[in-house]
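Researcher: Go.
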Amino acid sequence: MILIVEDDVTIGRTLAQGLTAAGLAARWLRRGAEVAPLVAQGGVEALVLDLGLPDGDGLDVCRALRADGHRLPVLMLTARGGLDDRLDGFAAGADDYLAKPFAFAELLARVRVMARHAAQRRPDPLVLGALEVDPLAGEARWAGQRLDLEPKGILVLEQLLRARGGVVTRRALMDAVWGDAAVTDNALDVVLSSLRKRLAQAAPKVQIRTVRGAGVAIEIDENKT
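Model: Structure:
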C-alpha cells in the first residue's frame, strides 16, 4: 500500500484516486499523527508525505519514523522547493523530494521506482525456530502469528537473529537501534525489558539472555510451554 499524507483535500483525493487507477493500493491521510500507528501495523510500501500538515511538520513525521527504525521509502511532497529545503528533507530521512506544483505522471513514476527498489532490496526473513523477523517490513512473527512489538524491539531481535544465537554486544545493539544518536546505556535496558515482557506473553519459548561482560543473546527454550 502507498500511504499519502496530504492535508489539501483536492490534492489528497486526486493522488489516492490516481494511484489506485494506476493499479497501486493507496490510502490517504490528512494528519501526521495518524502515520506512525498505521505504519506500525505493516503493509505500507512507500510514503508520500506533505510537509505542511495541520498538526505539525512532515519533516518531524519522517524523523520519528526513522528514529523508530522504519525503513519504508519516503517521497516528500511540498511547496518548499529551495535547495536548503530539499537538503533538510534528505537529512530528515527522505528518499525523494518533489516540489509543488507537479505533474501526476512524474509522481507516479517516482512512486513506482521507490516501490520497485523496496521490493528489490527486500531481504529474506531471519528465522530461529518458529521465530521470524522481516527486517524490511519491520515485523516479527511467532509460529506464523504477528507479534505486537515496538519498532526498537524488532530492531534488537533482528540483530540477535543475525548472530544465529551468538552474543551481540550492547554497543552493536545500540548502534543498530539509534545509529549515531547520543543515548544512555539505560535506553537499551528499557527496550530489552519491554521486549522480554511482550515475548513472555506471546512467545514464551523465546529467551533473551544477558551474558555478563559480553552482551546479549537469544535462544529458543523448547522446555517452555
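Model: The first helix runs from residue 9 to 21.
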